[in-house]
Amino acid sequence: MGRAFVYVILGGGVAAGYAALEFTRRGVNHGELCIISKEPVGIPLGLRQVPPYERPALSKGFLLPEAPARLPAFHTCVGANDDRLTPKWYKDHGIELVLGTRVKAADLRRKTLLTATGETISYKILIIATGARALKLEEFGIRGSDAENVCYLRSLADANRIVDVMKTCSGGHAVVIGGGYIGMECAAALVTNRIKVTMVFPEEHCMARLFTPKIAEFYEEYYESKGVNFIKGTVLTSFENSSDGKVTAVILRDGTRVPTDMVVVGIGIRANTSLFEGQLSIDKGGIKVNSQMQTSVGSVYAVGDVAAFPVKLFGGDIRRLEHVDSARRTARHAVTSIMEPGKTGDFDYLPFFYSRVFALSWQFYGDNRGEVVHYGDFPGARFGAYWVDKDRLVGAFLEGGSREDYEAIANAIRLKVPVKDLAELERSGLSFATQASQQIVPDSGLLTEKPIYVWHATAGVVVAVSIAAFAYWYGRRRRIL
């Protein structure tokens, strides 16, 4: 028993949805494309099918107590102001969805995938979009995270579980394990749901992989003003449980006991590469690809969290970037490379991260290496930082900026603007990037597609005016002659 397709996307996350949209725009025929996803079918809310959706919503709008985000509102590709890919959209475009299905083996030489139900699915071109999984406490020797009030966040089912548990804890306490993206965004959501929060993480400050101590201090003080308690420099070692198996307290390494009504764990992710180890090159914890998103096997591509690709801005250094923007853009580039072989340029990506919590909103572009220069009004929640390496701007962070401000810092990083004087850079602050970004830069597809559309519209007007002016001049010349 088996089925055959020209193109198969393995994985049902953000990258899969954006790849599907790009395939349709580049002329894929009905019946040629299949998406295989192990995302459960028949999860709460009565959904029989769960095609790709925008996962950032899970730690933001989905957890709101009032007017929360719900499907189909955040199916891909609404995150880029594009078509919303509902189940009907896939059906209308002749794309086969194989949902709730786990692939247990992949034979890249034979170009076949074997599902857990025993079906063989063959392909000519495979796109691996398996993403990553949340690290579990058991992997660090902590037992008991299967308790019903211990939550992780990676899927719609996880988000539904958090919502259900929060409803039983209103006015109670929660412990958030981890000070990264998931920890910070879930802590904000818990507070918004009137739950007291204690955050526990081993680093000296929150978002340690990105924030400087000065930036982290601002956010920690803001969170504390909302009632969040931080316990830093330590880790969870065990749970206390009630007779019905629920966690009632967490025990930390120094013996501290923190009573709680629920636990949310956000301690990182690991790329889903196990099916392909021994068959594909692995680097930086992901599947290594070239600048076309092509793996060491020519008929196989990898995109999203699982892909480790060369970043031109960093001299071709291989990076695996765990962010939705990277997933969207690597997916589209891979499909372009597949559908237009030999005509597609190298992937030129500007690393981008963002978050929105409470009334705060920040964006970061580039790399946080080298010397850091802070600027702006920290008390007023409008501040930023630059990173300078070898006298060039390589990274920029901004809290509380406008769209134009974010475009300015993005352009400045893409230009790798020279920096002669760090003190002057600090005094200039945001205006340094604003002035630098006024230089002509290539179309980079930053932020969302909307700026590109505006650019094209403006260019169209310029061309139209130029043509009209030429026609007027030529007409006058003929009359004179």
TrEMBL record:
<dbReference type="InterPro" id="IPR023753">
    <property type="entry name" value="FAD/NAD-binding_dom"/>
</dbReference>
<dbReference type="InterPro" id="IPR050446">
    <property type="entry name" value="FAD-oxidoreductase/Apoptosis"/>
</dbReference>
<dbReference type="InterPro" id="IPR048618">
    <property type="entry name" value="MDHAR3-like_C"/>
</dbReference>
<dbReference type="Pfam" id="PF21791">
    <property type="entry name" value="MDHAR3-like_C"/>
</dbReference>
<comment type="similarity">
    <text>Belongs to the FAD-dependent oxidoreductase family.</text>
</comment>
<feature type="domain" description="Monodehydroascorbate reductase 3-like C-terminal">
    <location>
        <begin position="350"/>
        <end position="433"/>
    </location>
</feature>
<protein>
    <recommendedName>
        <fullName>monodehydroascorbate reductase (NADH)</fullName>
        <ecNumber>1.6.5.4</ecNumber>
    </recommendedName>
</protein>
<feature type="domain" description="FAD/NAD(P)-binding">
    <location>
        <begin position="7"/>
        <end position="330"/>
    </location>
</feature>
<keyword id="KW-1133">Transmembrane helix</keyword>
<dbReference type="InterPro" id="IPR016156">
    <property type="entry name" value="FAD/NAD-linked_Rdtase_dimer_sf"/>
</dbReference>
<keyword id="KW-0274">FAD</keyword>
<keyword id="KW-0812">Transmembrane</keyword>
<dbReference type="InterPro" id="IPR036188">
    <property type="entry name" value="FAD/NAD-bd_sf"/>
</dbReference>
<keyword id="KW-0676">Redox-active center</keyword>
<dbReference type="GO" id="GO:0005737">
    <property type="term" value="C:cytoplasm"/>
</dbReference>
<keyword id="KW-0520">NAD</keyword>
<dbReference type="Pfam" id="PF07992">
    <property type="entry name" value="Pyr_redox_2"/>
</dbReference>
<keyword id="KW-0285">Flavoprotein</keyword>
<keyword id="KW-0560">Oxidoreductase</keyword>
<feature type="transmembrane region" description="Helical">
    <location>
        <begin position="453"/>
        <end position="475"/>
    </location>
</feature>
<keyword id="KW-0472">Membrane</keyword>
<dbReference type="GO" id="GO:0016656">
    <property type="term" value="F:monodehydroascorbate reductase (NADH) activity"/>
</dbReference>
